[in-house]
UniProtKB/TrEMBL annotation:
This is Uncharacterized protein YecT (DUF1311 family). Pfam families: LprI (PF07007). It comes from Shinella fusca. Residues 1-23 form the signal peptide. The keyword Thylakoid does not apply. Keywords: Signal. The keyword Protein transport does not apply. Residues 32-135 form the Lysozyme inhibitor LprI-like N-terminal domain.
């Protein structure tokens, strides 16, 4: 397989990266309650995902602490009952792969178009909030 057909796409991507980096550092002020342009909606969807990801990270830290406590209590009874932390980490890694693939797929609805980032970010936010709820159920059973 030759990579020659990919060369124009790679060059275009390399030209776009500095623009993307500048855009992230110089993000315009956007009122997400009244976003009307696609650029504004993309920015707001990205912010929504970032907020969801921050919540997930906080929940994950609590879940790890709960799993460590569970392992510590189990170790006192039987060493073979230990493994909650490892199971949590394996589950989280697997979930990240699922989330990323699923949200890449969601973007194909507008592949290459200006709406694609919004679709991907919306998917990421949605799945991240669902995972946060799963983690909270682990360390806050019955709430």
């Amino acid at each position: 397989m030759t990579l020659r057909p990919l060369l124009p796409a790679v060059c275009a991507a390399l030209l776009f990266l500095p623009t993307l980096a500048m855009a992230q550092n110089d993000e315009p002020e956007v009122d997400c309650e009244n976003a009307t342009t696609q650029m504004e909606m993309n920015i707001c969807a990205g912010r929504d995902y970032q907020e969801a990801d921050d919540e997930l990270n906080a929940a994950y830290r609590k879940a790890v602490a709960a799993a460590e406590t569970m392992d510590g209590e189990s170790k006192d009874m039987d060493e073979q009952l230990v493994g909650a932390v490892d199971a949590l980490k394996r589950g989280q890694r697997a979930w990240i792969g699922y989330r990323d693939g699923q949200c890449d797929l969601a973007g194909f609805e507008a592949r290459g178009g200006s709406m694609e980032p919004m679709l991907v970010s919306g998917c990421l936010a949605d799945l991240t909030r669902k995972r946060t709820a799963e983690l909270k159920a682990f360390y806050e059973p019955g709430d």
